[in-house]
Write a structure and sequence with these properties.
The complex is a heterodimer of chains A (153) and B (145).
Chain A: H1 8-15, E1 19-25, E2 31-37, E3 39-42, E4 45-52, E5 67-73, E6 81-91, H2 94-107, E7 120-134, E8 141-144, H3 145-152
Chain B: H1 3-12, E1 17-23, E2 29-35, E3 37-38, E4 44-49, H2 53-60, E5 63-68, E6 76-86, H3 89-102, H4 107-110, E7 115-129, E8 136-141
Antiparallel strand pairs in B: 1-2, 1-5, 3-4, 4-7, 5-6, 6-7, 7-8
The chains are: A alpha+beta (153), B alpha+beta (145).
Chain lengths: 153, 145
């Protein structure tokens, strides 16, 4: 399973963060980025975001398709730690929504105010690649999915 | 410069890091945190070595997006979409001066031969301020800059 390859140090970093930048593609193939609060589960590693189905980021998701996306978590000038991820994002279907809402609203209770808004959708992101960079050292310390895969081979 | 454009400029001048997203060979997005500076025309300047993914991506596909103001405690962010190009050596001096003045920590990379400077020209900008009720939100299109 992919998530077992993610280093525990990176999973702990993820658990302590609340905000991400999610990038998807617009209809014309150009990138669009937005700041979003996120929640996540580890098995399998999946990130969740609450947004509106009218938002630009949802342009290519409304037919239920899974599309490519990238994420950055960690942009603090005090921590100097950053996690990049790439993978697939989709709208959580109705039959999976209850379980995801429990996870999401536990971490982000203020989001629950929009739970019953007809425009509200929850997005699920599954990473296929990641890189965690610690900029506090010289040279930078980098952990990545590619390194983890080599170790497991 | 209208008041909205000035407000965006005033805000991004207070920020030092942004997330830049580019498009890879497969047409998929890739994102990274970078130090940035800006011009009075709301152009974004950043530098990257010529062996990075974003360097190759921009030379193939110049459309990029960015978010400035990712810290939730600030409550303000700018979403930015535009076109990036590598700054030619003939113009490098003026932009490097702007960049190093804002980001003195990155000076150590400035003279590395592999280090390249990029300029992003905006096409679309959205400013969101969640510190006021109701939230303040406006968009700027390139023709208004």
């Amino acid at each position: 399973m992919y998530n077992t390859a993610m280093n525990r140090k990176v999973l702990d970093f993820l658990a302590n963060q609340r905000v991400s930048v999610l990038t998807t593609l617009l209809k014309d193939g150009t990138p669009h980025s937005a700041t979003l609060h996120f929640s996540h589960k580890e098995n399998p590693l999946t990130l969740f975001f609450s947004t509106e189905n009218t938002s630009r980021k949802c342009e290519n998701l409304l037919d239920g398709a899974s599309v490519k996306a990238s994420i950055v978590i960690g942009f603090s000038e005090e921590e100097w730690l950053t996690l990049q991820m790439e993978g697939d994002v989709r709208i959580v279907p109705r039959n999976e929504l209850e379980e995801v809402q429990k996870i999401h609203y536990k971490k982000l209770p203020s989001s629950e105010a929009w739970k019953n808004d007809p425009a509200t959708v929850i997005l699920a992101f599954t990473p296929t690649w990641w890189r965690f960079t610690d900029l506090n050292t010289e040279p930078y310390a980098i952990l990545s999915s590619e390194d983890e895969r080599k170790l497991s081979e | 410069m209208d008041s909205n454009t000035q407000r965006v400029l005033d805000f991004i001048k207070t920020e030092y890091l942004c997330v830049i997203s580019t498009i890879n060979l497969d047409g998929n997005p890739e994102s990274a945190t970078v130090a940035f500076s800006e011009t009075d025309k709301l152009e974004i300047i950043f530098q990257t070595p010529n062996n990075t993914r974003k360097y190759e991506n921009i030379h193939r596909h110049s459309n990029v997006s960015a978010v400035i103001g990712c810290d939730p405690t600030h409550g303000t962010s700018v979403q930015y979409e535009g076109v990036a190009r590598e700054i030619p050596d003939s113009d490098r001096g003026q932009y490097l001066q702007i960049h190093n003045t804002k980001n003195p920590k990155t000076k150590k990379y400035a003279n590395l031969i592999e280090n390249k400077l990029f300029l992003i020209t905006p096409r679309w900008i959205r400013y969101t301020n969640l510190n006021v009720d109701p939230p303040e939100l406006f968009e700027i299109n390139i023709e208004n800059v």
